[in-house]
Amino acid sequence: MRILIADDHPVVRRGLKQILADEYKTLTVGEAQNAQEALRLIDEQDWDIAVLDISMPGKSGLEVLKELKQLRPKLPVLILTSYPEEQYAIRVLKAGARGYMTKESAPEHLIAAIRTVTRGGHYISPGLAELLAITLSNDQGKPPHEALSDREYQVLCMLASGKTVGQIAEALSLSVKTVSTYRVRLLEKMQMKTNAELIHYAISNKLVG
To answer: Is there a smaller number of Cβ atoms within 10 Å at the N or the C end of the chain?
Structure first.
């Protein structure tokens, strides 16, 4: 089993490696702490599966996913993140991921997800299955946030969580000016004027807790 783990937290990568080592007798694990490393390893080596976090310095996991699919269209991808399903699951599945899990999931669920995904299936929780069904039934009237780019959507969720432009810039390794530009764009697309409106919208649509 050859597994690439892309996550910017060393503790998370170490924990995942231990879980995988307990399950697979023959195991090769590649580690990437940012998008650049992940894409380089994907381009240079063959993998059975890539396990990606959404939040990484520089390019987000969503951007990595899209570029990865261009480099290796058949490589199965499992998203493992701290963000709840309501925020990103639909978006990443549409972008080509085979599964979505939160980091609070039990180790045995991670192994089950990897087995399912590497065998050509999709791994989704019962809650996510219900969310998908609702989304498909309402596909004709898409909510405004679905018109946002991946980066604009990420900024929306972080603003709605109470983070300042400066905090978002630091977390995403972007300049304050760039994040401010994303904020202006998403406000225009959402036809809103203030962060308070964004927060209300995000809570109403269960994009944040």
So the answer is: C
| Cα dihedral 45, 24, 82, 139 sign | positive
Are the C-beta atoms of 34 and 58 separated by less than 8 Å? yes
d(CA 93, CA 103): 17
Beta bridge partners of 5: 31, 51
Evaluate the CA torsion angle 105, 110, 112, 114 in order and state its sign: positive
| pLDDT tens digits, 59-114 | 778 888 989 999 999 999 999 998 888 888 888 888 899 999 999 888 999 999 99
Structure-token pair, residue 46: 């063959």
In the 3-class helix/strand/coil scheme, how is the chain assigned residue by residue? CEEEEECCCHHHHHHHHHHHHHHCCCCEEEEECCHHHHHHHHHHCCCCEEEECCCCCCCCHHHHHHHHHHHCCCCCEEEEECCCHHHHHHHHHHCCCCEEEECCCCHHHHHHHHHHHHCCCCECCHHHHHHHHHHHHCCCCCCHHHHCCHHHHHHHHHHHCCCCHHHHHHHHCCCHHHHHHHHHHHHHHHCCCCHHHHHHHHHHCCCCC
Structure tokens at 18: 């231990």
Among 65, 43, 42, CA closest to 54 = 65
Place of tokens 């892309």: 6
